[in-house]
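Below is one such protein, fold included:
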Amino acid sequence: MRNNYFYNNEAIGLISIYSVLQKIREINIAKITLVLPLLFHEKSLKHIMNDDFEDSSIEEFTSNTHLFVNFNDRFKTYLPICLNVISIMKSSDLISFDNNVISINEQKEIDISKAEIGNRGKQLHDAGHKLANILIENETNLFYQLRVIL
């Protein structure tokens, strides 16, 4: 696992999480914590970028066991960055909270796809849109399938 803070940080995390929110508009806070461990892992990112991924379920995704051997470790590693990103987005008024649900603020919405975010940012933005389809599933099932230990 690449643990270089300069490679996986709040700025690139914001692009990743915001792209998911752009697609589904609102998400349970528990589910949003799954975004960075999935998108910051190069092999998972490559799998998500496949053309046939958008029609996948979490069960199909996790059938590739080599992608999830250390998922719980990644989850714990990226949780502080995720919480920092949520804090930054909240203080920037990009999102709002209501009953553990994060919603995108449509009055402050930014178009990340047109920003100068570089190749990695563009790849994470595109992958975030694809990942959003899986994150619609029940959070209990998502955490179970990904073997997250809380």
Strands lie at 26-28, 95-98, 101-104. The mean pLDDT is 90.
